[in-house]
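Morning F.,

Quick status update on the modeling queue. The single chain you submitted on Monday has been processed. Sequence for confirmation:
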Amino acid sequence: MTKADEPGGGPLTGVRVVELAGIGPGPFAAMLLADLGADVVRVDRPGGPGLGIDPARDVTNRNKRSVVIDLKSPDGPGRVLDLAARADLLIEGYRPGVAERLGVGPGPCHARNPRLVYGRMTGWGQQGPLAPRAGHDISYLALTGTLGMIGAPDRPPAVPANLLGDYAGGSLYLVVGLLAALHHARASGTGQVVDAAIVDGASHLAAMIHGMLAAGGWQDRRGANLLDGGCPFYGAYETADGRYMAVGALERRFYDEFLDLLGIADQAPARDDPARWEELREAIAARFRTRTRDEWTAVFEGSDACVAPVLSLREAPHHPHLAARSTFTEHGGLTQPAPAPRFSATATAVRTGPALPGADTESVARDWDVPRLLTP
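Structure tokens below.
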């Protein structure tokens, strides 16, 4: 029985994916497909990718299998094309034109498999003046206006790790595109190319805010709006022990409960007067500084005040709610986020740990019927 045929593997059981190894959003997108049950074969390059972490701890390679192919060797492209001929989806994250030069672009792949959905993950996209240029998450967010929205008005924009660009604007949009194109391919028999650019996805994520801007409900500057830290009842406050509490008491009834539990209901300035927001912020901040984070957590426990402790990455798996939902799981000694979302009929799971480069060559050659993978 192959990994793709195992019961309980998720809703994408039976879908075959070729991932041409890279860093950032491509591997994460392939992990999401693998978490959903797809049989993902990662084509690693000799020596591994740049910026790579220890392969044994790289959870973005969980639930996958790995083969090593040197695309610059005479028979390297042919081996990848053999895999593409038997795949439903392919993911590559090279700069535009690189896959073509290596002999594994959409043309050769579709010549072997017209039904293949060919996913291209880049920052700038396949066309445009910046398409051939290098970049990273922060570069793409900067040009879309997204980075400029985040942070305090008197400080440089805050950097949201690589979550907002690489993964939200990149990986998730690539996966949506791949699954939509797979649906079309199965209905029509014809594959296509999915051009997923982080600049497109990150811009699309801000659709609501662009609407608010057009309607006059959003100021085009940091720290002046309802959801960007400008509002005193939507932000984070330091506690007596140097930790933080997050406040999201936007609706009036939640706000009233927040003020009551905070203990300043009879002192707080009017919330609906932006001219007094700074005065209100100072009153809230002063009160939060009187107790520790854990003491405030106990105060707001069980309430609808929309207040939560700001936890660290190591603390989060132990929170009672996340523990009850098994939001995090442990596999092979690695604590990691469990697959998401959840399905009532096709449960997902962390089936295998990170795929080590080349460790699955024999099983892939057998299961996918690609004997050339075993050729020295």
